[in-house]
Amino acid sequence: QVHLVESGGGLVQAGGSLRLSCASSGIIFSINAMGWYRQAPGKQRELVAVIASGGRTNYADSVKGRFTISRDNAKNTVYLQMNSLKPEDTAVYYCTAAKWDKQVVDYWGQGTQVTVSS
Length: 118
Prior knowledge:
This protein is mainly beta. Helices cover about 0% and strands about 55% of the residues.
C-alpha cells in the first residue's frame, strides 16, 4: 500500500519560510518523479515544483527563486523549502509521485495546509 505523508505546513507571516516534507512508503522512491501541487480556495490545483528521479527540477513561474524542491532517496523523502512567502501562496499543498518520471501522477498525499498572513 502506498502512502505519501506530508508535514510541515502551518501559519506564517508574509516574508517568512516553511519547509514541507513528504515521507513515502510502498513505492520504489528512487524511480519516481516527486512533486508538489497546491490548491487554493476556489482555484484549480496547480503544479508548484517537481524533481525527477535523476534530480532535474522544474518550478512554476510564480515560485521560481523562492521555493526549492529536493529529495533524499535514502530517506524516501521529498522536501519543499519555501522562502519569502506571500499571501497568494496560501493553499493546501499535496505531495505526488509519478513512476518512471511520467507526467501523469500515480499517487497523491492527503495534503497539508499552508496559510500566509499579510
